[in-house]
Write a structure and sequence with these properties.
The protein has about 90 residues and is of the alpha+beta class. It has 2 helices and 6 strands, in the order αββββββα. Strands 1, 2, 3, 4, 5 and 6 form a 6-stranded antiparallel sheet that branches. A hairpin with a 4-residue loop joins strand 4 and strand 5. It starts with a helix and ends in a 6-residue tail after the last helix.
Length: about 90
């Protein structure tokens, strides 16, 4: 994926780029698929995206920071965040 394609997709999702950073709102859940020939990984629960000229940094809810070149970015999923309070623990009264 190119930086321009990513910026376009973020815009379609209504996410604004400010100072080369994108904050993912709490009500959204973002995941990215990255990799090359033979291996891909999913980086989930992304809360912040940092856009550099030649690389992207994905920061997760755990504070992990993953750096990739744009050509390794294969896809992105953004959806409404699941409401964990609505699901409970699985026990019923």
């Amino acid at each position: 994926m190119t930086k321009e394609t990513l910026l376009s997709a973020l815009g379609v999702e209504g996410l604004k780029v400010g100072n080369n950073n994108v904050a993912i709102p709490d009500e959204r859940d973002a995941s990215f698929i990255v990799g090359g020939p033979g291996e891909t990984i999913q980086v989930g629960k992304v809360v912040k995206i940092e856009l550099r000229d030649n690389a992207i940094c994905l920061e997760t809810t755990k504070g992990e920071r993953f750096w990739f070149t744009y050509d390794l970015l294969l896809g992105m999923r953004i959806r409404a965040a699941e409401d964990t309070k609505a699901h409970g623990t699985g026990f019923s009264r």
